[in-house]
Specification:
about 525 residues; Fumarase C, Chain A, domain 2; 18 helices; 2 domains; mainly alpha; single chain; elongated; 3-stranded antiparallel β-sheet; Fumarase C, Chain B, domain 1
Length: about 525
């Protein structure tokens, strides 16, 4: 399994592609601009890349048939391309695939796509020149990031249409994010003193016929899911405190008897937010499932991330285009490594686990606002004084919004990978839908993060209203952090600005949204 790197630091570090295995954290740091990418100075690496390129050129000169080099594409592979037109073929591939629609990936995602494509092509079996690999690194390091439409890939033959936007930028076509603006690619390349490349035979296909878009999204989704799982346990711990729940539900011995590692980590996090309340009997011998079984729900996500890491990092570091050129053995392999089945399945599983965590938090929110279940807290967690209580409705509307976000997340758990379509004259007659699954996962994470910040505010409000004199140190730390930027609700007010600030803090990893311990 690919090795992991150090956690991000304030210093910019260098990730070397092509020799060691790149990690999820490497991709995230490269996407955020907190790391730079470089190619190896290794002689053996350069020999492998150049031998792949030379082997391909020799076959072209001998007139041997190589798919996508001197043939048409896909079902048109039986159409021979004359030698004098071979140089033009990559440009046609890039241009006719310029049909993506829908929203566009943001700069972060576009940068992650560049990192993922370099990780694969730099393995040295794709028949591309070193100059192409260096130019992809230049785009990433100088933040000349292709603008890529989200829609148009079925996940086999890889991410053809979205990756055509990467290839087009190398050719000086289409648009990029650069210096905080959306600009013509040719203008940005000129400002960075980067020459436009004419793609050599196979290079357009090598860039496009792979799983870089879905894999890049998977890396970003994985990192966000880790954070969400940790925060869900923290919020559950606050909810147990606020509802005066039974802390014995999270006893370490209990979780030794059903030893799923992620489930135990979740229980331990919830437990550390509790204090020893031997002086107070719990309100009930057994709390509702949304409290008592929260580690079992969150643990599914925690434990799933363990196997997802292996799948994502294996795909990231694989040679996933077609055909493959083993120059050292002078072999050409026509295969199907562009198929995104593993990423698709992982992302379908991820979005299901994340939606389930959102659902358990939604149920906790419902317990907190309901006088019948919140064990003496004010209705809807309103902090209004008694004489004005009839006017104020506290967190009532936010609870409805949380249910809406949760319902939308749950609705999106239908597995995208089950919807294969036969495409491209029935040549691509079984496709992965991996990119759609990955995009769905990002949307479910977005909804889940909205549930996270809303439930965090409600839980902090509830603990604040309890006015407990004794709190565990981690609980006090969470409260102090949140209360620096969140004023408890004593009179009804709009909460959208506060929610957006909380989301911004989460995505910037500030305060309690910072580093997340992980055993994955």
């Amino acid at each position: 399994m690919p090795t992991r790197t150090e956690s991000p630091s304030s210093a910019v570090r260098t990730v070397v592609a092509g020799v060691a295995s790149m990690s999820i954290e490497d991709v995230v740091q490269l996407a955020r601009g907190t790391a730079r990418i470089a190619l190896p100075g290794d002689v053996d690496w350069l020999r492998r890349v150049e031998s792949s390129w030379r082997s391909l050129q020799n076959r072209i000169e001998r007139g041997e048939v190589v798919y996508g080099v001197n043939t048409g594409y896909g079902d048109s592979c039986g159409r021979a391309v004359p030698y004098e037109l071979v140089r033009e073929l990559p440009e046609h591939l890039v241009r006719y695939h310029g049909c993506g629609l829908g929203r566009e990936f943001d700069e972060l995602t576009g940068a992650a796509v560049l990192a993922a494509r370099v990780a694969s092509l730099s393995r040295g079996y794709s028949g591309v020149r070193p100059v192409l690999l260096q130019r992809l690194c230049d785009l990433l390091n100088r933040r000349v990031v292709p603008v890529i439409p989200e829609e148009g890939s079925v996940g086999a033959s890889g991410d053809l249409t979205p990756l055509s936007y990467v290839a087009a930028v190398l050719m000086g076509e289409r648009e990029v994010f650069h210096r905080g603006q959306r600009r013509a690619a040719a203008d940005a390349l000129g400002d960075e003193h980067l020459e436009v490349l004419r793609l050599a035979p196979k290079e357009g296909l090598a860039i496009m016929n792979g799983t870089a878009v879905m894999t890049a999204i998977a890396c970003l989704a994985f990192e966000r899911a880790q954070r969400l799982a940790h925060l869900a346990s923290t919020i559950t711990g606050l909810a147990v405190v606020a509802l005066r729940g039974n802390a014995a539900h999270f006893h370490p011995r209990l979780f030794e008897l059903k030893p799923h590692a992620g489930q135990a980590r979740s229980a331990a996090r919830i437990r550390e937010l509790q204090i020893d309340r031997t002086d107070v009997e719990p309100s009930r011998i057994q709390d509702p499932y949304s409290l008592r079984c929260a580690p079992h729900v969150i643990g599914v996500l925690e434990d799933s991330l363990s196997w997802m890491r292996g799948w994502i990092e294996t795909e990231l570091n694989s040679v996933n285009d077609n055909p493959l050129i083993d120059g050292e053995r002078d072999l050409v392999f026509h295969g199907g490594h562009f198929y995104g089945g593993h990423i698709g399945f992982a992302m379908d599983a991820l979005k299901t686990a994340v939606a389930s965590v959102a659902d358990v938090l939604d149920r906790q929110f419902a317990l907190l606002v309901d006088e019948r279940t919140n064990r003496g807290l004010p209705s809807n967690l309103s902090g209004a004084p008694r004489e004005r209580a009839s006017l104020n409705h506290g967190f009532k509307a936010l609870q409805i919004a949380v249910s809406a976000w949760t319902a939308e997340a749950l609705r999106m758990t239908m597995p995208a990978t089950s919807f294969s379509r036969s495409t491209e004259c029935h040549n691509q007659d079984k496709v992965s839908m991996g990119t759609i699954a990955a995009r769905d996962a990002l949307r479910v994470l977005e909804l889940g993060e909205q549930v996270i910040v809303a439930t965090l505010l409600a839980s902090v409000q509830a603990v604040h209203l309890r006015d407990e004199k004794r709190l565990a140190v981690p609980t006090r730390q969470v409260l102090d952090d949140v209360l620096e930027w969140f004023e408890p609700v004593h009179a009804d007010r709009a909460l959208d600005t506060t929610l957006r600030e909380a989301l911004a803090r989460l995505r910037a990893r500030r305060g309690i949204f910072g580093e997340v311990p992980s055993a994955t």
